[in-house]
Write a structure and sequence with these properties.
heterodimer, B: disordered N terminus
């Protein structure tokens, strides 16, 4: 109940701030522009709309999620509202989890609205909405959940701008390097020590590439089997639990 | 305030840099297709970026052709229209998926690696039939961003004219490309090819192919570039009542490809036709 109250209080920020409305209008404008494009009089061209539209939806959702989640704790500390909050029967763990839940509400809410507009554009263009669209929705939420968790953890000891930069770097770098590490691990010419080391790194780093189903969606590949979807969901839950556990530990030790 | 100051410095530096570029080597940059530096401030600021985005857009068309994969063999690339036509002819235009098994890989116990393997797409397939139109947005964006991107015009002309049966659009698109790239023999070649193969308008085909030949010869194009020009021009000349030119073109081709059986056979065919 305490966590829910903190989360709902955070969510009100989304409604109050103008960021969301500006980004929403930006997305709508982009989709209208893409929708009205004509290519040599050929009709029913849709993949470019899926490609650019989905990338924009993800980009704008991250643009909402990261600043909001990275502001949660520092804003409370800076404005000193954290003291009355902690003087109530609320533990530091409750604050961290509540703030995380608030970040999730904000990110998921924004993404859901963006995605709905995107789906509307696809349907109006004559596209078929299948199972893969559901998987993309689910995986995008999981991606945002991991990013929010990292951002919340970093917000305990980094400034807001440093936090956003580092989280974005982490996202981009691990996205790129995961593929490199994977191909190294699968190659035949790797000695045992290097293999063990790389395996360790591979377990440790977040696998943002798991959540990217854009190629499948845009180019009409088949949907993922249920066991893969559940495995990735389970992986995400475990990973987020570990980050939040770390965040609670760090926040408990922080001098306020 | 700080951000506005940084932005102002960035814009000022970029304009300053682009005017310095102008002083030194504008002509060479324009020849290489790096945008029109003699245009407005926006073109100057975004000149390089436009070229980069145009190339990315073109690469995207190639990725679309391969079902979303970028790690494909070069011989299947969209970059070579002559290849596409022979490739599609061989495969009947309906290309199958084929395994990308050129990397030796070992089995793994790491569950994350197994998941990564399952979600990544390791096969690739080519666009076929009604799907081929999906390339068009990226080709159009590519030339809109950089009208000097002649490769994009050639590929666009090929897909419109030879694959999607949009012949009028292909001709207009290629003519626009020629207007922006008057020294490109590839564009004249593609236009000639469309007139020759799709419209069977041999007179016009000959005009464009002769122009392609003149431009390519003046730029000392290599034998592989000359081959399709001579081949198509020989066909067009034969159909327009000049078989002696076809024979002379095949004599040149024989010097370039002395061991090529197809060239030998075709040369004999033209000689026999005259006799």
């Amino acid at each position: 109940m305490k966590i829910l109250t903190i989360a709902l209080f955070s969510f009100k920020e989304l409604v109050r701030k103008k960021d969301f409305y500006v980004l929403f209008l930006l997305l709508a404008g982009l989709l209208v522009f893409l929708f009205s494009e004509s290519f040599f009089g050929v009709s029913d061209i849709i993949r470019y709309l899926k490609d650019i539209g989905l990338s924009a939806v993800l980009f704008l959702s991250i643009a909402i999620a990261l600043p909001f989640s990275s502001r949660q704790l520092p804003a409370e500390i800076e404005s000193k509202t954290i003291y009355p909050l902690l003087s109530k029967p609320v533990s530091r763990a409750d604050v961290v989890i509540g703030k995380y839940a608030g970040s999730l509400l904000i990110s998921f809410g924004a993404f859901t609205l963006f995605y709905a507009v995107f789906l509307l554009a696809i349907i109006m263009k004559g596209g078929h909405i299948g199972v893969l669209f559901m998987q993309v929705y689910l995986f995008s939420l999981l991606l945002l959940a991991v990013l929010c968790a990292f951002s919340l953890l970093f917000s305990i000891f980094l400034t807001i701008s440093a936090n956003i930069t580092i989280t974005l770097f982490l996202y981009i770098l691990t996205y790129w390097f995961s593929a490199q590490i994977k191909s190294l691990l699968l190659s035949e010419d790797l000695n045992k020590i290097a293999g063990a080391l790389l395996n360790g790194v591979y377990y440790l780093i977040p696998h943002f590439e798991f959540y990217d189903l854009r190629v499948r969606l845009v180019h009409g590949w088949e949907a993922l089997p249920a066991w893969i979807v559940s495995s990735i969901a389970l992986y995400t839950v475990i990973y987020i639990a570990a980050i939040l556990f770390l965040a609670v530990r760090v926040f408990k030790k922080k001098n306020l | 305030m700080k951000a506005a100051l940084i932005l102002a410095i960035f814009v000022f530096s970029t304009i300053n840099l682009s005017s310095n570029i102008e002083k030194y080597n504008i002509e060479s940059l324009e020849k290489e297709g790096y945008g029109d530096f003699d245009k407005d401030v926006l073109s100057r600021v975004f000149g390089e970026l436009r070229t980069y985005l145009s190339s990315s857009s073109y690469t995207n068309a190639d990725i679309y052709f391969h079902g979303g994969l970028y790690d494909f063999h070069e011989e299947c690339s969209l970059f070579t229209p002559a290849h596409i036509s022979s490739h599609h002819e061989k495969e009947g235009g309906d290309h199958d998926d084929h395994a990308d098994g050129h990397h030796p890989q070992k089995r793994t116990l790491n569950p994350l690696l197994k998941i990564a393997e399952k979600i990544s797409i390791t096969r690739h397939r080519h666009l076929s039939g009604n799907e081929e139109k999906e390339l068009l947005p990226w080709i159009l964006y590519s030339v809109k961003l950089n009208p000097k991107n002649e490769k994009a015009y050639v590929i666009g002309g090929y897909w419109l004219g030879m694959r999607l049966n949009k012949i009028d659009e292909a001709i207009n698109f290629l003519n626009e490309g020629i207007k922006n790239n008057p020294a490109s023999w590839d564009l004249y070649l593609m236009l000639g090819e469309i007139y020759l193969i799709r419209l069977r308008d041999y007179q016009n085909a000959r005009i464009y192919l002769e122009k392609a030949k003149d431009l390519a010869e003046s730029k000392k194009a290599d034998r592989f570039d000359m081959r399709p020009i001579y081949t198509f021009l020989a066909e067009a000349c034969d159909k327009t009542g000049s078989p002696e030119i076809s024979i002379s073109l095949y004599e040149k081709l024989l010097k370039m490809f002395p061991d090529d059986e197809t060239v030998k056979k075709r040369a004999v065919f033209f000689k026999n036709a005259v006799l």
